[in-house]
Design goal:
This protein is an alpha/beta fold. It folds into two domains: 250 residues, ABC transporter transmembrane region fold, CATH 1.20.1560; 235 residues, P-loop containing nucleotide triphosphate hydrolases (Rossmann fold, 3-Layer(aba) Sandwich), CATH 3.40.50. The chain is built from 18 helices and twelve strands. The strands form three sheets. The chain has a six-stranded mixed beta sheet, with helices on both faces. The chain has a four-stranded antiparallel beta sheet with strand order 2-1-4-5, with no helix packed on it. Strands 7-8 form a two-stranded antiparallel ribbon. Helix 1 packs across helix 9, helix 2 packs antiparallel against helix 9 and helix 5 runs antiparallel to helix 9. The longest helix has 53 residues. The radius of gyration is 35 Å and the shape is elongated. The N terminus is likely disordered.
Length: 584
C-alpha cells in the first residue's frame, strides 16, 4: 500500500513539475537568489567569529580590524535582505502563475467533459476541487519554493563551512543527521493519507452545502432540515477526525526534529569545548561553529514543516489532476463538417441508447422528420422523451445507430454548428448573473435594442421587464435571483425568439406560465414554427394538438405515431393519456 502511495505521489510531483516548466527561468533565478541569501547568511558567523577573536580582553581590542568587520557585516545584511525579498517576490509570482494555469486547465476541462460526468457527480465537489484544493496546493507550493530550496542550500553550505573549520566536529553533526531525516520521513507518510482523506471529506461537505443552499425551499417545504443537519454533522465529524489526525501527525514533526537537532547542538558544544581547551580551536571559531550548528539544524525544522505542507499540497493536487485528466467528450472528427443551409431534415436510424449499461432505455428507435414538420413527443415519465432531445443536441452520443441532420451523421458535424441550428427552451431555466438584456442576447450578442424589445413583446415578457427597477438593464442574481419561475421561463423563451434558429426544441417550454399567457405564447410559437422543424415535448397534451406528427413513447420505443385525430380514433395508449387529463 505504501509503495502504491509513493508511486502516486511521484506521479503527482511529475505533473507539478510539468506545470513549472514554462517558468524555469524564474525557478533558476529563485535558486540563485536562495544561494546568495544562504551564502551571505553563512558568511556572517565567520565575520562574528573574527570579531570575537579581535576582542582579546580589557584594553586589548583591535578597533581598526573590528570597524572593518562591522562594515562588512552591514553590507552582508543588506545583500541578504535584498536577495530574500526578491526571492519571495519571484516565488509568489511563480506560484500563482502556476495556480492560474492549473485553474484555467481545470475549467477548460469542465467545459469539454461529457454531461454524464457532470450529471453523475456533486457539483459542489467539483467546485471544491477547482477552488479549495487548488488553494491548498498553492499554500504548499509557495512554502516549498520559499523554504525548501533555501533549506537544502543552507544544509549543504553549512556543512562546507564547518568542514573548512574542523572536520572531526563536522563528523559528529553528520552522524546524528540521519535520525532527523528518518523521523521526518516516517511522519510524512502518515500525514499524506490523512490529508488526502481530509481533502475528500472537504469536497463532500462542499457538495452537500451547495445542494442544500440550491434547494433550500424544497428542504424547508418537506421539513428535511433535521435529516440535512444529521448528514452534515456526519460529514463534518469525519472532516474533524481526519483534520485532527492530519494536524496531530504534522505537529509531531517539528518537536521531533527539534529534539534531534538539540542533540546535534549539544554534541557540537561538547566536542567543540574539548577542542578549544586542547588548543585545536579558538574561542571565535567555537562561537562560529555553534552558530553553524544552529543554522544547520534550523532548516531541518523548516523542511519538516515544508514536507508536511507538501503532503497536503500533493493530496489536493492529485484530486485536481484527476479532474484535469478525466476523459473528455468524444473529440470532433478532423474533417468535421460545418452545418450550413439548414432546411430541417432530421433522421434517427436504429438508435440504441442507455445512460447505464445495467438499464436499457432506447432500443431500435427510428424516426424521419421532413423539413418544417412539427414533431410532438409524448409519453409517461421516464419513457425517454428528454433523452431524445439530448441525442438530437449531441449532449450524449448514441450507443449504436445514427442521428442525422441533412443526411449527415451528427458525429461528423462540428458541435457548434449543430447546436447553432437548434433553438432550445427547457423546463429547467438557466439565467446567469447579469442584466436582463445580457441574458436575452446570449445566443445573439450583436442584437439591437429594437430586436430585443420586439422578441420580448412577442413572448409577452416586455410588460414585466418594464416594471423592473431599471428595465432591460436590471441586474439579476444567479439563476434569476428574485424573479418568479414563470418570469425566468419567459426570458428563456425571449432568448429563443431573438435567435430564430432553423430548428426548435421545446421541452415543457411553458410549464411554469399561467394559462392565459401560455395561450398567447403558443400563438407566438405557432408563428415562429412556421417553416421550421420543431420538436415539442409536453405533458399537457392540449398544447400539441396541432403537431404534424405525434410520437407516443413507452419504455424507449415508439408505440404509436400519427396526428391528433388519427391517434384518438385508434383509441390506444395516446387516447388513454389524452382522456385521462380531462377525467375527474
Amino acid at each position: 500500500m505504501a509503495k502504491k502511495m509513493d508511486s502516486k505521489q511521484m506521479q503527482t510531483l511529475k505533473k507539478v513539475l510539468r506545470y513549472m516548466k514554462p517558468y524555469r527561468f524564474l525557478l533558476i533565478l529563485s535558486v540563485l537568489l536562495a544561494t546568495v541569501t544562504v551564502a551571505s547568511t553563512l558568511y556572517f558567523p565567520l565575520l562574528t567569529g573574527d570579531a570575537v577573536d579581535y576582542i582579546l580582553g580589557p584594553g586589548k581590542v583591535d578597533f581598526t580590524s573590528l570597524y572593518s568587520i562591522l562594515k562588512k557585516m552591514g553590507l552582508v545584511i543588506a545583500v541578504t535582505a535584498l536577495a530574500q525579498w526578491l526571492m519571495n517576490v519571484i516565488n509568489n509570482k511563480m506560484t500563482y502563475q502556476i495556480v492560474r494555469d492549473i485553474r484555467n486547465e481545470a475549467f477548460k476541462k469542465i467545459e469539454i467533459l461529457p454531461l454524464k460526468y457532470i450529471d453523475g457527480r456533486s457539483h459542489g465537489e467539483i467546485v471544491s476541487r477547482v477552488i479549495a484544493d487548488v488553494d491548498q496546493f498553492a499554500d504548499g507550493l509557495l512554502m516549498g519554493f520559499t523554504q525548501l530550496f533555501s533549506g537544502v542550500i543552507t544544509i549543504l553550505g553549512t556543512l562546507c563551512f564547518m568542514l573548512s573549520i574542523n572536520v572531526a566536529i563536522t563528523m559528529v553533526v553528520l552522524f546524528v543527521t540521519p535520525v532527523s531525516l528518518f523521523v521526518a520521513s516516517f511522519i510524512a507518510k502518515k500525514t499524506f493519507t490523512m490529508f488526502k482523506l481530509q481533502s475528500e471529506a472537504r469536497g463532500e461537505q462542499t457538495g452537500l452545502i451547495d445542494e442544500m443552499i440550491g434547494n433550500q425551499k424544497v428542504v424547508q417545504a418537506f421539513s428535511h432540515e433535521d435529516e440535512a443537519l444529521e448528514k452534515f454533522d456526519e460529514i463534518n465529524g469525519r472532516l474533524q477526525k481526519y483534520s485532527l489526525q492530519a494536524i496531530f501527525f504534522s505537529s509531531i514533526t517539528n518537536p521531533a526534529t527539534r529534539f534531534v537537532n538539540s542533540l546535534v547542538y549539544a554534541g557540537v558544544g561538547i566536542t567543540g569545548a574539548l577542542a578549544a581547551i586542547s588548543g585545536h580551536l579558538s574561542v571565535g571559531q567555537l562561537s562560529c561553529f555553534l552558530s553553524y550548528a544552529n543554522q544547520y539544524t534550523k532548516p531541518f525544522n523548516e523542511i519538516s514543516g515544508v514536507v508536511t505542507e507538501l503532503q497536503n499540497a500533493i493530496a489536493c493536487a492529485g484530486r485536481v489532476f484527476e479532474l484535469i485528466e478525466e476523459t473528455p467528450q468524444t473529440p470532433e472528427a478532423e474533417n468535421a463538417v460545418v452545418l450550413n443551409n439548414i432546411k430541417g431534415q432530421v433522421e434517427l436510424e436504429n438508435v440504441d441508447f442507455s445512460y447505464t449499461k445495467q438499464q436499457r432505455l432506447i432500443e431500435n428507435f427510428n424516426l424521419s422528420v421532413k423539413p418544417g414538420q412539427r414533431v410532438a413527443i409524448v409519453g409517461p415519465t421516464g419513457c425517454g422523451k428528454t433523452t431524445i432531445i439530448n441525442l438530437l443536441m449531441r449532449f450524449y452520443d448514441v450507443n449504436s445507430g445514427a442521428v442525422k441532420v441533412e443526411d449527415v451523421d451528427i458525429r461528423e458535424l462540428t458541435r457548434k454548428s449543430l447546436r447553432a441550428g437548434y433553438g432550445m427552451v427547457l423546463q429547467e431555466t438557466w439565467l446567469r448573473a447579469g442584466t436582463i438584456r445580457e441574458n436575452i442576447v446570449i445566443g445573439k450578442p450583436d442584437a439591437t435594442d429594437e430586436e430585443v424589445i420586439a422578441a420580448a413583446k412577442a413572448c409577452h415578457a416586455h410588460s414585466f421587464i418594464k416594471r423592473l427597477p431599471h428595465g432591460y438593464d436590471t441586474v439579476i442574481g444567479e439563476d434569476g435571483g428574485s424573479l418568479s419561475q414563470g418570469q425566468k421561463q419567459l426570458l428563456c423563451i425571449t432568448r429563443l425568439m431573438l435567435c430564430r434558429p432553423p430548428m426548435l426544441i421545446l421541452d415543457e417550454a411553458t410549464s411554469s406560465i399561467d394559462t392565459r399567457t401560455e395561450i398567447k405564447i403558443q400563438n407566438a410559437f405557432a408563428k415562429l414554427m412556421e417553416g421550421r422543424t420543431s420538436f415539442i415535448v409536453a405533458h399537457r397534451l392540449s398544447t400539441i394538438r396541432s403537431a404534424d406528427i405525434i410520437l407516443v413513447m413507452k419504455d424507449g420505443h415508439i408505440i404509436e405515431q400519427g396526428n391528433h385525430e388519427t391517434l384518438l380514433k385508434q383509441n390506444g395508449f395516446y387516447a388513454q393519456l389524452y382522456n385521462s387529463q380531462y377525467s375527474y
